[in-house]
Write the structure tokens for this entry.
Amino acid sequence: MSSNTLKQAAEAARTKSSNMGKQGSETVAAVGNDFLHTPVMRAALPFINGGISGMVATTVIQPVDMIKVRLQLAGEGVATGPKPTPLSVTRDILAQGKVLDLYTGLSAGLLRQAVYTTARLGFFDTFMKALQTRAKEKGTQVSFVERASAGLAAGGIAAFIGNPADLALIRMQSDGLKPIAERKNYKSVIDALTSIVKNEGITALWAGATPTVVRAMSLNLGQLAFFSEAKAQLKAHTQWSPQSQTLTASAIAGFFASFLSLPFDFVKTRLQKQQRGPDGKLPYKSMTDCFVKVARQEGLTRFYRGFGTYYVRIAPHAMVTLIVVDYLGWLTR
């Protein structure tokens, strides 16, 4: 056999091997693509992508959330006295422990996102697809009112489901404010949930559920409805790239989410942090009672204490969540 013949045989073998490799990778990609487009996965993906995006955002923003909670609980019940700042709260936390103390309650925060954000983004996407299908059949566009209704409904349902994890997060973050002898020193979110059920009953896991649901509805109105509307308007009236449209729309959504939800977030934090005193009574009887007492004893502006910190927490969280979920949606389309 000549050397030319050997070279031709070797080249043919390499070509065949390369083609087989390409066919194999294409087959794997096709199988993966087919799996993503099964009816079950198409229905589940909005929920899966929502949960992942929320957990990524929470991991990034958790220290800011910790500072926000401490600001809201400072000076409870009095109108005067020292007014803490984000910097002073951060300094106090670092002086008492370690840098990782800023991540206190991260396990509860991740559990909350796994439940709450999975549900709210999943339900919102599901509702929006139904609205878009109906609008397409009628030859119209989805209105802002319809987007708002979808956001309100998704937020309310998800908040009620995720309240136990949210309660555990608040308890873990506020534990360090108590005298050392009264601290629970929760080891994890499971430890916090178990302790609450054991000492206060299972219904205590839904303490503050009303303001939590109202807060979630107002936050989702600002975040999801305004994001969806802003993105639609930017797409229709600008020549910006999809990335620029998503970033700008998420920033707009972050502001409205912060402004509309902070008073309810403030009341939610107070209600979830409260525990019975020596007389067996709770400081606040209900969401309305908390609003009235805080307004009377601490002033109306107290509801917006820490707005800067809250915005720094909500806006980036909203932006990271919406950008990640948008990207995951593109990857799994």
Summary: The chain is about 75% helix and 0% strand. The longest helix spans residues 39-73.
